[in-house]
């Protein structure tokens, strides 16, 4: 079904749907539930995949699992759901998360309103009707008053234009477009390109199966052990009894986890004292070392060096061959400024006889993919399978791919050539009635995603409810509010070490992409951001203008109820 009768809030031109949601992952599913079941809106979802799950539908590479603790990597909006679902492991595997999301889709009866196998390829705002027209690759054309993008921050795969890739006679796979029936590495010579969070999960798994594995590293990663394992049933019981407290604590936290920085500067500690703290965080595993370390870690290079030194020593004491250990040791960016990979036997894997590390700086970069392998630093490495673990065109990529045209035909992809411009990361001046869940310039990827997703979905739902109560037909961020938000995002990050890394947070992983810090960092993380969004709503949506039906193009601020 591509069209249906809908009653647009604020009356006026008839749309096929009150709202079109793009994507059926964590965010699109909750958005649909909220608009349809709380506001009684006629909403539909276009989803490119053949099932729900988003990230967890697509990323099926070996070792794929969540790096957030399972008890908080889930929806928290429904008390009963929290009680009825039990996670098996500290970090569930991809298939368990997908089963969870399937369960949610059934539980909230979402599938009848999701149109699977349809990728949105264009959408345009019509100034006269004040409606969006959305087109899919299957030929659907549907109108709606609101469009909500729920496309995820890491869904536009980045396959660098490696010379000769098309000539490779073996098989190659991008980790985020993994075959659903898996890949058999038995007796194969495998190459993995990349050593980010994905590759760090995949490499130890592939090395166990493959005859030979060659890892092509451009930048070494600082890894911390995941320390995955079954969850003790007593711990699960205690958490279920305390979910209200947990929910509040993650909402009030900096990053959406039950973690906070140590209220102390590492430079004010003795070497013995900090070594003890480092050991404690290291033994705890997970993001504690990254997100609950000394509070000066992200601000002072000297402090960062002290912390990074601990991780470098761990690499050197784990990897047997000192030359390989040196290649695996990060040297040219501060710790924590690239996404923290969590590992299970990653460095140990380089002690295996069937694993070879080819490092771009010391052995030479990838020059070409040949019909039979990869040539790097003048040497050809024969391969049967290549795993391309080169990540994503993060945050802006998925939105640019939607072909969004706003007021007067302005094109988002063009306007964002020098970086994203948003208000709060959830709205864009010139694009009325468009909301971007966990969009650029919101906490998004710098938080435990479900926490930020729920916050955005609930804020958007309340905003649309407000419009319906006040018979408002369009909402649009002002250019001034947008500029001020962009300046604020940039100013905050400039006081940190984050710009010092060639990270995907900075857009540095994509050739030609503007170097801009893409998510929003602070000053009080997700809790401060949540408060800011709430204050803006309380002030009658400060920084936005509303219009009633028929005022398109000449929007006037309208006082809130
Ligand atoms: O991608 P990445 P990823 N030639 O961009 C290298 C999330 N995630 O898929 O560092 C050679 O981090 C690149 O090198 P460099 C998580 O947020 C979540 O691993 O740019 N190499 C790097 O080593 C994560 O951060 C979970 O110099 C090239 C690698 O490829 C995000 O996904 C689990 C290259 C890419 O690393 C992305 O991680 C896993 C080139 N031309 C991942 N281009 C969860 O827990 C790039 N590289 C939910």
From TrEMBL:
Would you say which domain of life the source belongs to? Bacteria
- Read off the Gene3D superfamilies from this record: FAD/NAD(P)-binding domain
Keywords attached to this entry? FAD, Flavoprotein, Monooxygenase, NADP, Oxidoreductase
Coiled-coil portions: none
Q: Which GO terms describe its molecular function?
A: flavin adenine dinucleotide binding; N,N-dimethylaniline monooxygenase activity; NADP binding
Which coenzymes or cofactors are required? FAD
Task: Spell out the family assignment given in the record's similarity comment.
Answer: Belongs to the FAD-binding monooxygenase family.
Name of the molecule in the record: NAD(P)/FAD-dependent oxidoreductase
- List the source organism: Vineibacter terrae
């Amino acid at each position: 079904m591509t069209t249906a009768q809908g009653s647009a809030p604020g009356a006026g031109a008839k749309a096929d749907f009150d709202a079109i949601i793009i994507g059926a992952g964590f965010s699109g599913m909750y958005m649909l539930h909220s608009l349809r079941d709380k506001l009684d809106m006629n909403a539909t979802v276009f989803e490119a995949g053949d099932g729900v799950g988003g990230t967890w539908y697509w990323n099926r590479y070996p070792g794929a699992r969540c790096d957030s603790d399972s008890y908080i990597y889930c929806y928290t909006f429904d008390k009963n759901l929290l009680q009825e679902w039990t996670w098996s492991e500290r970090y569930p595997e991809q298939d368990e998360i997908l089963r969870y999301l399937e369960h949610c889709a059934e539980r909230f009866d979402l599938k009848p309103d999701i149109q699977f196998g349809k990728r949105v390829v264009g959408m345009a705002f019509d100034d006269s009707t004040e409606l969006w027209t959305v087109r899919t690759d299957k030929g659907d054309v549907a109108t709606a008053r609101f469009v909500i993008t729920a496309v995820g921050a890491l869904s536009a795969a980045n396959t660098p234009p490696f010379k000769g890739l098309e000539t490779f006679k073996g098989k190659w796979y991008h980790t985020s477009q993994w075959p659903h029936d898996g890949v058999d590495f038995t007796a194969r010579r495998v190459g993995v390109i990349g050593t980010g969070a994905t590759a760090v999960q995949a490499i130890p798994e592939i090395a166990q199966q493959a005859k030979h594995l060659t890892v092509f590293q451009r930048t070494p990663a600082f890894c911390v052990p995941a320390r995955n394992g079954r969850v003790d049933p007593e711990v699960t019981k205690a958490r279920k009894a305390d979910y209200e407290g947990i929910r509040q604590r993650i909402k009030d936290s900096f990053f959406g986890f039950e973690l906070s920085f140590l209220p102390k500067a590492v430079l004010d500690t003795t070497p013995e004292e900090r070594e003890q703290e480092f050991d404690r965080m290291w033994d705890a595993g997970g993001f504690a070392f990254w997100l609950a370390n000394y509070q000066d870690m992200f601000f002072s290079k000297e402090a960062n060096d002290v912390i990074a030194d601990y991780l470098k020593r761990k690499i050197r004491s784990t990897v047997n061959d000192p030359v390989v250990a040196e290649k695996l040791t990060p040297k040219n960016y501060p710790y924590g400024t690239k996404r923290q990979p969590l590992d299970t036997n990653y460095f140990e894997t380089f002690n295996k006889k069937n694993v070879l590390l080819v490092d771009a700086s010391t052995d030479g970069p990838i020059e070409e993919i040949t019909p039979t392998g990869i040539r790097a630093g003048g040497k050809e490495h024969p391969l049967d399978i290549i795993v391309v673990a080169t990540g994503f065109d993060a945050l802006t990529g998925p939105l640019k791919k939607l072909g969004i045209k706003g007021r007067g035909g302005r094109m988002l992809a063009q306007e964002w050539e020098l970086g994203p411009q948003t208000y709060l990361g959830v709205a864009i001046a010139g694009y009325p009635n468009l909301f971007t869940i966990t969009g650029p310039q919101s906490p998004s990827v710098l938080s435990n995603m479900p926490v930020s997703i729920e916050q955005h979905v609930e804020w958007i739902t309340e905003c649309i409810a407000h419009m319906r109560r006040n018979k408002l037909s369009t909402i649009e961020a002002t250019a001034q509010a947008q500029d001020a938000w962009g300046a604020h995002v940039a100013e905050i990050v400039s006081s940190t070490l984050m710009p010092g890394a060639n990270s995907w947070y900075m857009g540095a992983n994509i050739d030609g992409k503007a170097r801009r810090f893409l998510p929003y960092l602070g000053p009080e993380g997700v809790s401060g951001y949540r408060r800011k969004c709430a204050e803006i709503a309380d002030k009658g949506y400060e920084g936005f203008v509303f219009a009633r039906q028929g005022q398109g193009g000449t929007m006037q601020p309208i006082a809130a109820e």
